[in-house]
Amino acid sequence: MSLRIVDRETNAARQKEKFEKILGELERESIHIDDRRQRRSVFAVQAYAALCGSREVATDDLEIAQHCLWVEHGQQQTVAHIVARIAEPVGMQAHRLQMTAEAILKATDTHRFTEALKAVTKLTKLDELFGRLKRTIRVTQAHEQLKVQLRRMRQASSHLNDSDDE
How much is the pTM? Predict the structure, then answer.
């Protein structure tokens, strides 16, 4: 039982350290977060963790801080980037994989067999990376979307291969 308490204390210290590092990076970017906003951000992170069914804040829960720690609208992207880099929440990892998949699909001429086949290979690698992520609702939804895109691309490449045989 004492190991669990030590683990909780270690986890809390780790999350606090990451949050403070986020604040330090924001300060270096000339984004000053006052004490009141900091407290409200901590409450938002704690509430997010509770709504996700956790009794304590995990690294992934820091993701919500990106919506609380900006002062001016133009700072949103910078804040999101800093939170993603430091906290590296699984939802942001999933988003990055999803954006990569969309870029692959956009760059692929589905009427050319070799391009479609290369896209299938790349999407299959992304599918494997998704499989390694911690399962959350957001990750599952993004992974399912990738699977649909991968199935369509496989069907398209199969159809192109069949038409090449004829």
Answer: 0.58
